[in-house]
Design a protein that fits this description.
Layout: H1 2-15, H2 20-40, H3 45-65, H4 67-88, H5 96-113, H6 115-133, H7 139-162
């Protein structure tokens, strides 16, 4: 599953803002995998994958048909995932769901208030986290990889934001 997470993370690091439905599907997949592994254990590999895939597909469908709600959902899932993995993780398991909810609400509010930049930041942060967690490195190299991926993801997506399609020529 690590390779799948790395590939999803790499695609979203570069195109999270441009392909919003892909960002929503990707974060849905990652959160679905995290929750399925927490609830069912890591031995249920195929079942965990199917649950994660289902959450990802459902998230993508929601993003296409219910865009505004999907923006909030993506912000919620991304913010919750970041707080859970970066701040709480396994240290405070009994309180982790509160952190997930608080991070989720903050992520949803940020995404709705400052859509483009929040989406760029959340997708780059989330994807850098997913990739870094799935590459076996020592802590200092892992932190360096995270920082490089974060900066690269923000720059790549910000450049896409500045591009304006040319106006059609008349006559």
């Amino acid at each position: 599953m690590s390779l799948i997470n790395i590939l999803v993370g790499a695609a979203l690091l570069l195109f999270g803002r441009r392909l919003f439905w892909l960002f929503v599907a990707g974060i849905g997949f990652v959160v679905g995998m995290m929750l399925a592994t927490e609830w069912l254990g890591s031995n249920a590999g195929l079942l965990n994958f199917l649950i994660a895939l289902g959450v990802g597909v459902l998230s993508a469908l929601l993003s296409v048909f219910l865009q505004r709600m999907a923006f909030a959902l993506a912000g919620f899932l991304s913010g919750g995932y970041l707080v859970y993995t970066l701040a709480l993780g396994s240290r405070y398991e009994s309180m982790a769901w509160i952190g997930f909810l608080a991070g989720g609400v903050l992520g949803a509010l940020l995404l709705l208030a400052m859509f483009d930049w929040a989406l760029i930041g959340l997708s780059a942060l989330t994807r850098a986290t997913v990739i870094t967690q799935n590459v076996p490195l020592d802590p200092s190299n892992s932190a360096l990889l995270f920082f490089v991926l974060l900066v690269f993801g923000v720059i790549a997506q910000a450049r896409q934001l500045r591009r304006v399609p040319p106006a059609p020529r008349k006559g």
